[in-house]
Amino acid sequence: MATPTPLPTRTDLAKKASRYRLFAGILSWLDRYLSWPLPTRSALELTIQSTTSKLPGTIQLYFFTATGTLLSPGEDEEQPHAKRPVLINFHGGGFAIGHPLDDARWIAAVLHAHPDAVVVSVGYRLAPEHPFPVPMEDGVDAVIWLWEHAGQYRLDRGRFVLCGDSAGGNLCLTVPLRLREEIVKRHERQRESPGIKLAGLIAFYPSTDWSRSRIERDATNPIASRKSMITADTLKFFDESYLMQENLPRKAGTDEIDMSHPYVSPGLADEGLILASYPGHVAIYTCGWDQLLVEGNAFRERLRGFVGVGGLVQVGGMVIEDVVHGFDKRPSFLGGNGPRDRMYGDAVRQLEVMWKEKGKRMRGFGSGEG
């Protein structure tokens, strides 16, 4: 009998992560500084403390505005008309690499169309140093902190939208589920909690169904493995880093790992949980040459079946044909990126609808809200 291959240690994975992060950082730098037009730079960087996770630590928040500046905390708090819509962004990178600045080009597209907006890109802690569920819990902390400090930074609580790509797309879809649980817990402990409302979710090529292996995912869209820029070894590194067995959810009453749990696989979440947690507007974008194409499409269609039930009003998004996972993150230099522009353009239009729906049919959690 063959001896099973031992799982890599967290130290081994951390060494690999350093190499992957260096390479990813170079690509991101080329996109931000040598590809035209140059995207917007951050206006403010803050560090906040984690509170939801059992592992203490810090989370970085990068604020972006069209002007590149942000008013000082407390300024104009008494002017409701001056409050600005908010997009909270979660970057991709398999939960193990990547940086909040990687999405500067998407952020620039948003601010070009909505110059009054504030985009906050979240520097959640990365695996393998901080595996599941820490990145998701850091996302929850970011939303709660921004909600509680909205008045200081002129943020409009009625127009909070979440977005993310790849791993960040998974966070965009799981954070609202975990956020609901956290709000309920805080209400039970403290008898008060922020009545958080979300106006929309925008997920770019997210992972939504971890009950399927990578091999099974490739089988659903065979062209993906031939076209992908991401090697099988890299995907294996991502999975081993984020999905550490000792931290994964278990099936009720057993020690069996539950990869269909909604905090891992939001596409398999119970209808009742989705309707209780998601805002009225959701958009999911998928890539034609991606192993995540089928599961992403399936979740989008499933959500469309819920429109008119509870508070779900509209489900948008589309397939971007003939592109690979992460196609929009390649440095384009002087060549541009037509498919990226089409996807971002549609997402910006979806965002406009989400922000215009302020106060209408938005999902709220917290004391006195369902």
Structural write-up:
This protein has 370 residues and is of the alpha/beta class. It has one domain: Rossmann fold (3-Layer(aba) Sandwich), CATH 3.40.50.1820. 36% of the residues lie in helices and 17% in strands. It is built from 10 helices and 11 strands. The chain has helices at 10-33, 104-113, 134-148, 167-190, 214-220, 223-227, 232-242, 271-277, 293-304, 338-356, and strands at residues 44-49, 58-64, 84-90, 118-123, 155-165, 197-198, 200-204, 281-289, 314-316, 319-324, 363-364. Strands 1, 2, 3, 4, 5, 7, 8, 9 and 10 form a 9-stranded mixed β-sheet that branches. Strands 6-11 form a two-stranded antiparallel sheet. Strand 8, helix 9 (293-304) and strand 9 form a beta-alpha-beta unit. Helix 2 packs across helix 10 (338-356), helix 3 (134-148) crosses helix 4 (167-190) and helix 4 (167-190) packs across helix 8 (271-277). Mean pLDDT is 92; it is low at 359-363 and 366-370.
Q: Span between N and C termini?
A: 55 Å
Task: Give the class from helix and strand content and strand pairing.
Answer: alpha/beta
| Assigned CATH architecture | 3-Layer(aba) Sandwich
Order of helices and strands: HEEEHEHEHEEHHHHEHEEHE
- Coarse morphology: globular
- Low-pLDDT ranges: 359-363, 366-370
**Beta fraction of the residues?**
15-25%
Report the count of strand segments. 11
Number of helices: 10
The top level CATH class name = Alpha Beta
Oligomer category: single chain
Largest sheet: 9 strands, mixed
